[in-house]
Amino acid sequence: MFTGIVEELGEIISITHGEKSARLSVKCPLVSSDASLGDSIAINGCCLTVIEIGENMLSFDAVPETLRCTNLGDLKPGDLVNLERPMMLNGRLGGHFVQGHIDGVGKIHSVVKEDNALVISIEIEKELQKYLISKGSITVDGISLTVAKLEDYGFSVWIIPHTSHVTTMGRRHPGDRVNIECDMLGKYIERLVQFNK
Hints:
With 197 residues, the protein is of the alpha+beta class. Helices cover 16% and strands 41% of the residues.
C-alpha cells in the first residue's frame, strides 16, 4: 500500500527486453538505501518487486501484463521515474490510499502554465471516468492528485511548484502517456452495488 507521495526521482539505467517482458534497473540512492529483495516499490505508480540490489540501484521484472497495462514499456535509459516505498503504519498518510495497481493509461491532453502552477488535462478511457468526482483523489504516475475539473475526455489537475520539481509532472508534454489509478473507494462501491442487484 502506498500514499502517492513521491519520495525520489529515479533514473532508468537499463532496460532488458524479453519477448514480451522487461527487466528495469533504476538508479535510486534514497529508495535503495534500505531495500531488501522482495520489497514492493511503486515505479510511476506501478507496484513492482525488487529482484536485485546494487550500489544505489534496484532492478525489477515487469511481466507482459504489466507492460500491457502501464507506461513502463515506453521507458528508455535516462528517463526519470517517480518512486515510492510502501507506507509505514506509524507514518503520516499525506496523499490517499494507493494500491499500485494501474487501472489504465491516460494521455496528456494539454499543459498550461498559470502563474506559479501547471494545469494539466488528461484523457482517459470512458470506462474509468465513472470513478472520478470533482475534488476527489486520483493517482497519476504514482502521484496523489486532486481532480480539479471533470472534462468530456477525462479530467484536469493543478500542479504546485513543489510537485513540478520533485516528480515527473513538471516534465510532461501533450501526448505523453501516464499511469492512472482511480480511488479504490469508487470501485468497491460499484462492485457492492452490482453484487447486490
